[in-house]
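Internal QA ticket QA-208
Title: Verify multi-chain structure generation after dependency bump
Assignee: T.L.

Test input:
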Amino acid sequence: MKRLLLLTALITLATFSLADARVKVKGRGDKMNFDFDSVDASHRPSMELMTRKCSKCHTMERTVIAIQTGRAPITGQPFDRQAIKAYGIKMLRKPNSDMNKREIREVVILLNYLLEENSK
Ligand code: HEC
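Actual output:
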């Protein structure tokens, strides 16, 4: 009985903390992305831009995990404001990233916003 209670408590806690994350996530694996409905409508165009541009070479899963965990999934480096900026510049330098300065700036601002929302 005690075990069952503990298990119920754990499951409740787990679902609660997931539900509590400010920016929700939809889908799994390759289809994973931020849930557009969980962000303010003013950010939708940037979300669309990011989804279009940042899933050219890899899926959005990488970016979602970096924001959710605060760690870049490949290098394991902290994914903070500084890392977001550095990554933006890195992207800009990649010849085939197909993004201009303005687009990078928009995505960097959006990622900073998502990071902040998630840490609330
Ligand atoms: C030109 C292809 C390309 C595009 C476009 C691209 N990426 Fe990447 N991304 C890569 C490659 C290659 C890696 C593997 C490591 C590296 O080169 O940084 C990577 C790795 C990552 C990582 C993990 C970094 C780490 O250190 O673990 C994140 C997060 C990420 N990308 C986010 C983004 C975001 C956000 C965008 C849109 C601004 C984007 N990517 C667009 C090629 C791309």
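Spot checks passed. Residues 23-118 form a domain with the Cytochrome Bc1 Complex; Chain D, domain 2 fold (CATH 1.10.760.10).
Status: verified.
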